[in-house]
Amino acid sequence: MWKYEKKLQYPVKVSTCNPTLAKYLIEQYGGADGELAAALRYLNQRYTIPDKVVGLLTDIGTEEFAHLEMIATMIYKLTKDATPEQLKEAGIDAHYVNHDKALFYHNAAGAPFTATYIQAKGDPIADLYEDIAAEEKARATYQWIIDLSDDPDLNDSLRFLREREVVHSQRFREAVEILKEERDRKKIF
Amino acid sequence: MENSPNTYTWMKTYQTYHSVYDPCPPLGTRYYSTPPNLYLGFQPPNLEQFQPNKALKKGTLWPILYDYYENPYEKKRR
């Protein structure tokens, strides 16, 4: 069961009217390494992972939905007041034809979200290594979006999200260490 | 701690070969990010923390995991 807090994890402010940024951000919404894929991946893998790290997958999977909400807010703010002409200039006319201003789970190239983006192998090490890779890929995606964006307020929120990827990757790496640990041997740090 | 992660750089560089026949002018140095989580291993206890209000802004409680990202190509152009 979840409890919903009616606020964003980190404030989202957009200072320039630049719908093109929405085109890039949709990658983190419905793309292969996006927040939806991350949330669904972790919240599904958690059932078949050793007890010691179930809580980690639940916590991080839940937080990914909070990130998804931030991305959605960014995209909505960037597009809600744009005219069809502006959307055309921004290169999201194809999205407009299909969805108007509605958000949809697809990547920056318009490919719809698919469950094949995620995996649950049932092998704890294989699954956690996938999760670490997913965090690093999401971190890289945020970097590329920051590189393309010249909106300082948007970049501030994106930097927060990138930092969370760094922390999540760290925690998944620690989860691997926990599962690797040789129980009867002395730990040396 | 030996090899304190703070002695690492969070951005690495490499050079690419550029031929006189390449169509575009060379971009020069390429960059890639190597954030602190790659070096920390299992996080040791009792590390320094940010003030809670600062941590909420930075995205982490731990200075050792904080890595501010800036477009490395932008910096070069200035």
UniProtKB/TrEMBL annotation, chain A:
Organism: Filobacillus milosensis
Protein origin, superkingdom: Bacteria
CDD domains in UniProt: Mn_catalase (cd01051)
Binding positions for Mn(2+) per the UniProt entry: E35, E64, H67, E135, H168
Keywords: Calcium, Capsid protein, Manganese, Metal-binding, Virion
UniProt cofactor(s): Ca(2+); Mn(2+)
Record-given protein name: Spore coat protein CotJC
SUPFAM superfamilies hit by this protein: Ferritin-like
Pfam family, one: Mn_catalase
GO molecular function, one term: metal ion binding
Binding-site positions, Ca(2+): D59
Assigned protein family: Belongs to the manganese catalase family.
Cofactor note: Binds 1 Ca(2+) ion per subunit.
TrEMBL record, chain B:
Top-level lineage group: Bacteria
Source organism phylogeny: Bacteria, Bacillati, Bacillota, Bacilli, Bacillales
Protein name in UniProt: Spore coat associated protein CotJA
Matches recorded under Pfam families: CotJA (PF11007)
